[in-house]
Amino acid sequence: MLSEQTRQALPLNGIGAPPQQAHDTIARAAGALHTSRIRELLPIAAIFLALVLVPVVSLFLGHTYYLDLVSRAMILGLAAMGLNLILGYGGMVSFGHALYLGIGAYAVGMLSTHGVESALTQLVVAIAVGTIVSYLIGYICLKVDGMGFIMITLAFAQMFYYLAISLKQYGGDDGLPIAARSTLPGMDLENPYQFYLLVLAILAAAAYLLYRLVHSRFGTVIRGCKQNTRRMYALGFPASRYKLFAYVISAQISVLAGVLLANLALFAAPSYMSWTLSGDLILMCVLGGLGTLLGPLIGAIAFVGLEEFLSTMPIDLGNATELITTHWLGFFGVFIVLVVLFLRRGLYGSFTAKGARHD
Amino acid sequence: MDLQLLATQILNGVQLGVLLFLLSAGLTLIFGIMNFVNLAHGSLYMMGAYVAAAVFNTYGSFLLALLAAVPAAILIGIILDRVVLAGLYSREHLDQVLATFGLILVFNEIVRYFWGSAPIYINAPQALRGTLEFFGFEYPSYRVFIIAVGLLCGLGLYLLINKTRVGMLIRAGAADAEMVDAMGTNIRRLNTLIFGLGAGLAGLGGVMAGPILSVQPGMGEPILILTLVVIVTGGIGSIRGAFYGALIVGLVDTLGRAFMPAAFNELLAKSLAQAAGPAVASMLIYLLMAFVLAIRPHGLFPVRNG
Amino acid sequence: MRQHFLKTIAATGLGLSMALANAAPAEENRDELKVGFMGVFSGGQAALGQDSYDGFMLYLKNNGGKLGNRPVDVLKADAQIKPVVGAQQAKRLIDKDGVPIIVGVTFSNVMLAVHGPITKKEVFLIGTNAGPSQIAGKECSPYFFSTSYQNDQKAESMGSYAKSQGYKRIITMVPNYQSGFDFVSGFKRYYQAPLLDEIYTPLDQQDFSAELAKIASEEPDAVYVFYPGGLGVNFLRQYQQAGLLGKIPVLSTSTTDAINLPAQRDSALGVVTSPVWGPDLDNAANKKFVAEFEKEYKRIPSDFAAQSYDGAQLLDSAIKKVKGHVEDKAAFMAALKQADFPSVRGDFKFGNNNFPIQDLSIFEVVKDDQGRFNLKKIATPLKAQQDAYHQDCPMQ
Fold first, then answer.
1. Which of A227, A268, C78, C253 could form a Cys-Cys staple with A109, CB 3.0–4.6 A?
2. Which residues of C touch B112 (CB under 8 A)?
3. A156 in B contact zone (CB under 8 Å)
C-alpha cells in the first residue's frame, strides 16, 4: 500500500501497516497512552495554574499593574498561538499576521465610535471581516511559496497599514481611542480582574480547540504539508485547500486577540499592523517552541516579561542599569540572536522535549 | 501634462532605482547563492552612512568619507559573516529572518550609543551642491552623481559576473551551490567574498544616500523593505533582476507618488482624495509586487535552478 | 474645687487647641514626591524626549532637586511613540508606583491614548508637548494642564504671518497624519485665502524629490511645511539641493529646531518657523534658562526643553501653594490653574480648558553671534492667542 518511506514521513500512526503490527502497535499505544498523556498535560496544567494565581498575587500586592501586563502577554500569546498553527505546524512563514490583530482592534474601535459597544456584535463583525479578508489574502499568497510567501504576506499587511493611516475619521496615524470596554452581559469588563479571567478563559478555550485541531485528521494533513507539500498532493490531498483553511482559522484567532487587545489598551492603532509586530509574533513562536501548542504562549510571556524587565531594570546593577534601560532594545536584540542560535527547540519545547527541531 | 515635470520625475525615479539597486544587488546575491535572508542588510547601509558622516565631520572631505566608509562596511560585513552568521547558513529561513531581525536592533542601539539619537550631518562635496541644466529644467547635480555611480556599479557588476572567473563561480553558485562545492571550490571563501561584496555595495548606498536622507538610527528599515520588494519582484539570485526590478520599483514608486494624488483629485471628492491619494501611492509598489508574484511566482528574471 | 477648675481649664485648652488645629493650615508636607515623566526615549526620535527631560531636570537640579519644597523622585517612562506602550507605562506609574503627577508626553498619538486613562484616575497630567485638539475641546479634563500649546496654535501664527507678508500663492506640504492635518487646518484658519496646492506625503517617505519637482514647476510665492525630526532634516537638505532654497521662501512648523539644526546647518538658513518659544525671547526667566541649559548640556535648548522647564516651574509654584499637599486635589487643581510662575515665554495663563493663552511669535534661522545656527525672533503676529477649540470644552 504505502511505501515504508512514505509511512515514515507521515505521522499516520498505525494506518497502512500490516494488520498484525497494527494490533501490537495499538496495544502498546494504549498502555503508553495513559502515562504519556499525564506527562503531556502536566506542564500545561502548571502553566494555567500559574496564570490563575496571578490575580491572587495581584490582590495581595494591592495594584493591578501586573494583572494588565500578564493580560497583554496572554493576548499576544493567543495571537502567536494562532500564527503557530500555520507557522509551526504548517511551515508557512506569514510575516503579515499582525494585520489580523489590527482588523480585530479596528472592528472594536470603529463600532465603538458609532455607539455599538456590545462585545458579541463587535466580535461577529470582526470575525466576518477577518474571514473574508484572510480568505482572499490567503488564496493569493498561497500561490507562492518560500521567500515569496513571506514577502507577499508582508506586502498585504503593509497595504492595510497604509489604509488604516489614511482613515482620518478613525484617527489615522495617531490611532483611535476607545471610550470604554465592550459590554458583555453578566460581566463588567472595566473590572481588571474580570477582564483578566475572561482573557484566560478564552485562551484556554482556544488552546483546547487548537489541540483538537492539530491532533485531528486535518492537523495531520497540515503537518504533512510542512514536511513536503508535493507528497501530500501525490497522496490525493487537496493540500492548498487545507492550507487555506488553516490560514483562515489561524487568522481568526489573531482577530480575536485583536478584539481583546483593543479592549485592554482602549486604543486601536495602525501600528498594531506593522511588520515589526508580525516579527514579534514570529519571535514568540520560535522563542517558546515551534510546533508545540503552548510554546507561543510561553514565548509571549517571556517576551513581554523581558521587555518589561530590561526597560525598567528593577534590579540595580550600578552603572550598567542606566545603560540597559536606555539601550534595552539592543540587549533585546542580542537575546533574540542568542535564542535563535542556541535554543533551537524554544523554551517550552526544550523543557518538554517536544519541540520540532527545525533544521 | 508638463513634460519637464515628467522628465524630472523620471530622473527621480531612476535615481531611487539606482540607490535601491546598490542594496538589492548584494542582497539578492546573498540570498540566491548563500540561501541566506539577511535583514541586517539595511544596517550595513546605515553603518556606511554613519562612518562616512563621522569621517566627514572630522576631516570635512566627502571623498575621504567615501573611501573610508566602503571598506569599513566591507569589514563589518566580513566580521558579521564569520563571527555571528556562520552558524545560521544551514538553518531555516525563519531562523535567519529572526536572528538578523535581532541584529537590526543591536546595530540601531550601537549607533545610538556612539552618535546619539538625533540625526547627524553629511553634505555633498561643494562641486555637486548645485543644479544642472537639462532641456530647460534644473536637476540637482548630486542626484545625477548618484545615478552615474549606480550605473557604473551596475556595469562593474556585469563585467564581474560575466567576464571574470570569480563571476563564473558566482553564477554557478547561484544556479547550484552544492555542485560548486562538490567541484572543489572553497565555498566558505566564496561566501565570505559575496557577503563582503554585498556589504560594500550596501555601505556605498549608505554613503551616497547620506547627503539626501538624514543619517539617524533606524534609517536602514525603510530602505530594507523596499529592497526586499525589489529582489522578490526581480527574481532572487539574479543581478539582472535586481537591476531592472530596482528601476521598475523606483519609477513606479516615484511616478505614483508624483501623479497619483493629482489623478485622485480629478476623480474623487477633495477630502477623500487627500487621504486616499498618498495611501494608494504608498501601496502601489506592494500591489505591483503582488501582481508580479501572481503571474510569475519566481519574479521577473528568475535564476534557473539546476 | 481646684481640681474641677483645673480640669475645666485643661478641657477648654484642649478643645481650643483642637479647634485651632483644624482651622489653621496643616503642616507643610516635605516628604519625597514621586513624579512620572513620560516621553519617547528609545528609537529614532529619542532626542525629542531627551530634550524635554533635560529641560525638566534642569529646573529641578537648580532648585535643589525639589518642587514646592518637596524632594522629587522622577520616574522616567518610555512610551516609544507606541500608544499601547504609553498606556501601559501610565498604568505602571499610577498603579504600581502610585504617582500623583505625570509630566511630559511628546507625541500626540500617545497623548490620545494616555490622557483618558490618566485623568479618569484623578492623576494630574502636565502636558509639555503634544496638544491634540480633542483634549482641548470635548474631552478636556480638569486634571490636565498644558505648558506647551494646542497643536493648531503653532500653525495659526504662521498662517497669520503668511497673510501679513502678502504671499498670494502658497503650497502646503505635510505628512499624511493627524498632526499634519491639524497644522494645515490651523494655517488655513488664519491665512484665510485659498491655497495653491496641498501636498500630503506618506509618513515614512524620506525622499521628497517627486514633490519638490512639482513645487518647482508650480512656482508658488512660498511653501508651508511640517516635517518633524529626521524628516525635517531630509526635507530641507533636499530643498536646498533642488535649488529652491533662497528662491521660494520656506514657512515651517516643527521642521527646524535646536535638535535638527546641527544636522540641517545652512540648508535651514532663512527658513521661518513658529515654535511657541525661542531662545532670544526677552525676559529674565528665559535668559536664565538658556544660559543654564547651555552651561549644563553644552547645546542650545529646543522648545521641547523650554516647555518642560515651564512645566517644572508650574509644579513648583502650585505645590508650594498647597504646602506640599498634592493629595488635596481640589486645592492643587486651583493652584495649578493660577499659573503663577515666571514662564520663559513671558506672559502665560491658562484658558478654560487648561491650555495656554500666550503670545505666538515667528522665528528665523540665522547664525548667531557665536556663529552657531540659531533662531531669532522676527515678528509676533498673535498676542494672547487662545486655541480654537476652547469653546467645545464644558469647563469654565
1. A268
2. 46
3. yes
Could you tell me the CATH number of the domain that includes residue B240? Answer: 1.10.3470
Using H for helix, E for strand and C for coil, what is the string for chain B? Answer: CCHHHHHHHHHHHHHHHHHHHHHHHHHHHHHHHHCCCCCCHHHHHHHHHHHHHHHHHHHCCHHHHHHHHHHHHHHHHHHHHHHHHHHHCCCCHHHHHHHHHHHHHHHHHHHHHHHCCCCECCCCCHHHCCEEEECCEEEEHHHHHHHHHHHHHHHHHHHHHHHCHHHHHHHHHHHCHHHHHHCCCCHHHHHHHHHHHHHHHHHHHHHHHCCCCCECCCCHHHHHHHHHHHHHHHCCCCHHHHHHHHHHHHHHHHHHHHHHHHHHHHHCCHHHHHHHHHHHHHHHHHHHHHHHHHHCCCCCCCCCCC
Query: End of a domain among C241, C273, C305?
Result: C273
Q: Tell me the residue type at B65.
A: A
Rounded to two decimals, the ipTM of the complex is 0.84
Q: Could you tell me the pTM of the whole model? A: 0.83
**∠ CA(A65), CA(A66), CA(A71), 5° rounding?**
105
Chains that touch C (3 or more CB pairs under 8 A): A, B
| C305 — pLDDT class (breaks 50, 70, 90) | very high
Q: Cell 536584540 appears where?
A: A333
- The alpha-carbon gap from C162 to the nearest alpha carbon of chain B, in Å, equals 23
Closest CA to B252 of B284, B283, B229: B284
For chain A, which chains pass the contact test of at least 3 CB pairs under 8 Å?
B, C
Letter for the amino acid at A342?
A: F
Of the candidates B94, B101, B286, the beta carbon closest to that of A158 is on B286
E-only strand ranges, chain C? 33-39, 66-67, 70-78, 101-104, 124-127, 144-146, 170-175, 197-201, 222-225, 250-252, 272-273, 348-350, 356-367, 373-385
pLDDT, mean of residues B67-76 = 95
How many domains in chain B? Answer: 1
- How far is A179 from A64, CA to CA, in rounded Å? 20
CB of C191 closer than 8 Å to CB of C223: no
Residue B134 lies in a domain: no
What digits encode the pLDDT tens for the residues C326-379?
Answer: 989 999 999 999 999 999 998 899 999 999 999 999 999 999 888 899 999 999
Domain containing C159 — which CATH number? 3.40.50.2300
| Cβ-defined contact of A162 to B279 (cutoff 8 Å) | yes
Among the candidates C273, C294, C310, a domain finishes at: C273
Instruction: Return the residue of C nearest to B105 by Cα.
Output: C43
Statement to judge: residues C292 and C264 lie in one domain: no
Does residue B112 sit at the C interface (CB-CB below 8 Å)? yes
Q: Which three cell numbers stand for residue A22?
A: 497494527
- Nearest residue to A215 via CA among A13, A8, A4: A13
Among the partner-chain residues B5, B222, B275, the one whose CB lies closest to the CB of C213 is B5
CB contact under 8 A, A337 and B87: no
Residue B229 maps to a domain: yes
Q: Identify the domain containing residue A329 by its residue range.
A: 22-352
For residue C263, give the amino acid letter.
Answer: A
Among C41, C91, C113, beta carbon nearest to A175: C113
Same domain, C302 and C322: yes
More confident residue, A307 or B43: B43
Range of the domain at C86: 33-149+279-350
Residue A300, φ and ψ in degrees, nearest 5: -65, -45
C91 with A68: Cβ contact below 8 A? yes
Percent of chain B with pLDDT over 90: 37
User: Minimal Cα–Cα distance from B187 to chain C, Å?
Assistant: 38
In a domain, B186, yes or no: yes
Question: Looking at residue B306, what is its pLDDT?
Answer: 37
User: Which residues of chain A are within 8 Å of residue C109 when distances are taken between CB atoms?
Assistant: 173-175, 269
Q: Which of C249, C181, C166 is nearest to C215 (CA)?
A: C249
